[in-house]
Amino acid sequence: MFESLSSRLSAVFDKLTGRGALSENDVNEAVREVRRALLEADVSLDVVRSFTDKVKERAVGAAVIKSVTPGQMVVKIVHDTLVETLGSEGATLDLNAPAPVPIMMVGLQGSGKTTTTAKIARRLKERSKLKVLMASLDTRRPAAQEQLRVLGEQNGIDTLPIIAGQTPTQIAARSMTAARLGGFDVVMLDTAGRTHVDEPLMVEMAEIKRAANPHEILLVADSLTGQDAVHLATSFNNRVGITGIVLTRVDGDGRGGAALSMRAVTGRPIKFIGTGEKADALEEFQPDRIANRILGMGDIVSLVEKAAENIDAERAQQLAKRMQKGSFDLNDLAEQLKQMQKIGGMSGILGLMPGVGKVKKAIDAAGIDDSIFKRQGAIISSMTAEERKKPDLLKASRKRRIAAGSGTSAEDVNKLLKMHRQMADMMKDAGKGKGMFGGMMGRLAGMGGGPGPAGMPKLDPAELARLTRPGAIPGMPNGFPGIGGPKLPGLPGGPKKK
């Protein structure tokens, strides 16, 4: 999400931050480029006009802080205005009400309401340890109620039994009664949608609202909606009174205009963003972190949180002990590759790292993607247990056998072995308590203090050190494994592509 907006703004700020002083014409030109970038990202015209007016007013009259160039100051103003437009503070689900707390999901058909209902229910169950009941009020779409029941089974969440012939309001009333009798904490009400906003849809939503008296009404909207996002959000807000927004399919949207438009027009916070099809692909929307991503400043905190959630603490502990002994075989490498996949793969990790936008583009241009790691996993799986423990056994004949068994080439096997040797060397540092990721972040910290990506200050070195020190992440006493080290083909300093 936001890739095109991020790249356009980065180009604008690269010009600004390279100058020692800015004239009013420079600011006007920058504001025009920002306006063009926002419009191309499908942000509503009224929102763009308001945004750029604020930036221009603040930039022209801004007092330049010592040690910060005027160009960097403009970037900070744009950053602060972005945060303000997206919502100054992140808003979470409000469950401060007598149980069972009803949460009503509304939106158009195909926006992802049913999947999002299951994602939020799973999140409440796993993170907040709440007992959740899901109920489908969609009596129009074929098998909609069955779809929610299946999602409930897959995620271990209770669903309201299906009774044919009931109206949506009757189902809503029955779900509240069942929740009270069953001792549930939260009731998720998945309502029906239409392909467009119409009067019968709004009447039905209003009737369900009266029957269930929901504490939260979440509008689920496809981030690819574009300019129509404003009309959609306004219609639901005026008729039903939404309390928050959930944006889906943000992983497939490089523009991000819907996020800026809907928040600005309705005044309602974006509470979650759906980042994929998996049941756990749901993130809380943090305006300051999203603004950082848009401006190429990364999101280290989200990266560390994602690692803490997804990396197996016991396995990490075992690997840490092996590192301390200076031992790192191909089984360990396979485990590292799996850990990278769990926290989003190479693209997901780089997307959250500060100042790596250009590196990410170079990786994309070089044709390097996460399928490389899958091939490497297949190569390791084609080895015998002894070969994985003792890579030195791998001579030409064995490499040919492994290549044939994994559907790769002997050259691919050699590249993997070279990568393993480089990582094994890094384990010597890890054995001293630095950790692979810790070493890399230590180098980033050494560059802190000066102007960062897009002219903004880098993450404070002390904060970087705190986040990446050994033991900072549960189950990862040697720092953050799985990233950094071996140069990638096609990138500066790495082996040349064949």
CATH topology of the largest domain: Rossmann fold
- Strand-and-helix sequence, N→C? HHHHEHEHEHEHEHEHEEHHHHHHHHHHHH
Q: Supply the CATH class of the largest domain.
A: Alpha Beta
Shape: flat
State the fourth-level CATH superfamily of the largest domain.
P-loop containing nucleotide triphosphate hydrolases
CATH architecture of the largest domain: 3-Layer(aba) Sandwich
Decide which structural class fits the backbone. alpha/beta
Largest sheet: 8 strands, mixed
Low-confidence stretches: 433-461, 463-498
**In which order are the strands of the major sheet placed?**
3-2-4-1-5-6-7-8
Mean pLDDT, rounded to whole units?
Answer: 74
Number of strands: 8
Taken together, the total number of domains comes to 3
> Between the first and last Cα atoms, what is the distance in angstroms?
32 Å
Task: Please explain how this structure is put together.
By secondary structure, the chain is α/β, with parallel strands linked by helices. It folds into three domains: 3-86, Up-down Bundle (Four Helix Bundle (Hemerythrin (Met), subunit A)); 101-294, Rossmann fold (3-Layer(aba) Sandwich); 300-468, Signal recognition particle, SRP54 subunit, M-domain (434 Repressor (Amino-terminal Domain)), CATH 1.10.260.30. Helix content is 55%, strand content 8%. The chain is built from 22 helices and eight strands. It has helices at residues 3-17, 24-40, 45-60, 70-86, 113-127, 144-155, 168-182, 199-212, 228-239, 257-266, 287-294, 300-310, 313-324, 330-342, 345-352, 357-365, 371-381, 385-389, 396-406, 410-431, 436-446, 461-468; strands at 101-106, 132-136, 158-159, 186-190, 216-222, 244-248, 270-274, 282-284. It has an eight-stranded mixed sheet with strand order 3-2-4-1-5-6-7-8, with helices on both faces. Strand 6 (244-248), helix 10 (257-266) and strand 7 form a beta-alpha-beta unit. Helix 1 runs antiparallel to helix 4 (70-86). It is flat, with a radius of gyration of 26 Å. The chain starts with a helix and ends in a 30-residue tail after the last helix. The model is unreliable at 433-461 and 463-498 (pLDDT under 50).
